[in-house]
């Protein structure tokens, strides 16, 4: 399943597959581009199937309903939302087009990397563990970005041996997504990735 979201500031593409043999994906995401910002929430529910999806889809719905809030507040709301649910790893990315900055926070094994046209890479380290409603520390980072920067955010169902070269060697978002296809065949886990380019 492929979904795109684009405007004059950003072009994104999201791709998702359930674990082999499952009809329901345990990952959920929400992406939205406005004139002021782009927001992306990606959640990987613990385990797979319907109960994993219950946790992850609660996150995507909550972020959709509260997308105007800042990342620090959102990640805390996500943790509270998962009380009495199975739990999930969660990443939230919010890009401020006016100030050309992005803010990112993550708990668990979802990966994020941004590649700039000048050749630098940004990959904020997540907090280990998962959200489950228990008291939790968070780490939120804000960075500036260059126009033309590309990013990739993905759950652990996508295993990439050379993520930097994948980002560097593909010019468009469609090319980048196509180059990831070869890594989507061995589906021992739910798999979701979101690729984007900033203008």
TrEMBL record:
Residues 11-198 form the PPM-type phosphatase domain. PROSITE patterns: PPM_2. Transmembrane segments: none annotated. SUPFAM superfamilies: PP2C-like (SSF81606). Pfam families: SpoIIE. This is Phosphoserine phosphatase. It comes from Bacillus weihaiensis. InterPro entries: PPM-type-like_dom_sf, PPM-type_phosphatase-like_dom, Ptase_RsbX.
